[in-house]
Amino acid sequence: MSGQARRPHGSGHLIAVANMKGGVGKTTTVVMLAEALAADGASVLVVDLDPQASVSVCLAGETLLAEMIARGRTLEAYLALKLVSREKPLLAPRIRDRVSVTTHQNEPLSVSLLPAGPYLRLVEREIIYELTERNCSMRAIEDQLRTIFQEEFVPLAARYDYILFDCAPGISPVTEVAVRGADLVIVASIADYLSTYGLDAFVQTVWGSSGRRGGQPAPLRPPHVLVTRFQQQVRQQQHTLARLQAEADADDAGFRLFATRVPQAAALAEALMPREVPPTLSGKYGPHVSSVLIPLVTEVKGVFGGS
Ligand SMILES: Nc1ncnc2c1ncn2[C@@H]1O[C@H](COP(=O)(O)OP(=O)(O)O)[C@@H](O)[C@H]1O
Ligand SMILES: [Mg+2]
């Protein structure tokens, strides 16, 4: 079975923001890109695949997220019912539409959320325990998760222009399926030695020949690296960026590199904190970060042939 999304022209795009490393700006990228795409007129769904629930709390705020977790309005509640209890839960009612309070041109941004909660980690483990007890192989479990991805997430592309997956670090089973099934994988990475060391391993194990062992589908496109937390004045970052650029330009390149770089900016770190007053897009990100939002949106749309 192919895990890749093949859909009629004109429907939405699934984008996984991933990296095996934590703390490299995945969640920040998802929030920023979701709001920037929405400001460009797109309807965007954010799906949280990380048990740390960072993007869920950034978008929904603590009170709403606690309520959604308590009412089972989360990805893990859905997965537990579907794969452990073998019920027939619905995914759509767990999506909270227009969750972002950020406004642009006096309109709230069209950003929706399928949240995760802290039990996602346990549920992923429970799925493996439960299904192996029922004599399912690991491959069969992965197939079940891929089927869910195909049957539940891919059709959501008819409803949203973009579906952004905030992946867990370390590649959990659910993250693995999203990375392999997405139309585009954005690898958020800091331009330093250790972050890019992990990048090679990530690209090799998912896109390289070793990643295709065991019948796992290869992702549709090569990964696109987005440099985050960029500090132009730091020599190590300049050198690492130059090396990444040379690797991306090589004939046998394993990845592409976005020309847009997300700067290290206090405004961006603060942008993810809850606000008492709903912010405007430009007020939230400040002039320094706002100046990269349009180029980033243009590049992402360009991947799919849009302008
Ligand atoms: N461009 C940036 N400028 C300043 N701080 C950033 C930037 N990107 C991320 N951060 C901060 O770095 C930390 C990790 O970012 P996060 O997006 O949560 O990474 P990940 O999702 O990869 O773990 C957070 O505290 C976040 O506020
Ligand atoms: Mg994160």
What does the model show?
The chain has 307 residues and is an alpha/beta fold. The chain has one domain: P-loop containing nucleotide triphosphate hydrolases (Rossmann fold). It contains ten helices and nine strands. Strands 5-2-6-1-7-8-9 form a seven-stranded parallel sheet, sandwiched between helices. Strands 3-4 form a two-stranded antiparallel sheet. Helix 1 packs across helix 2, helix 1 packs across helix 10 and helix 5 packs across helix 6. The chain is globular and about 55 Å long. The protein starts with 12 loop residues before the first strand and ends with a helix.
Key features of this structure:
307 residues; Rossmann fold; seven-stranded parallel sheet; 9 strands; 12% strand; binds adenosine-5'-diphosphate; binds magnesium ion
Write a brief caption for the model.
The protein has 307 residues and is of the alpha/beta class. 45% of the residues lie in helices and 12% in strands. It has a single domain (13-301), classed as P-loop containing nucleotide triphosphate hydrolases (Rossmann fold).
CATH class bucket: Alpha Beta
- Full CATH superfamily name: P-loop containing nucleotide triphosphate hydrolases
Can you count the helices? 10
How would you classify the helix and strand content by structural class? alpha/beta
Quote the distance from N terminus to C terminus.
33 Å
How many distinct folded domains? 1
CATH architecture: 3-Layer(aba) Sandwich
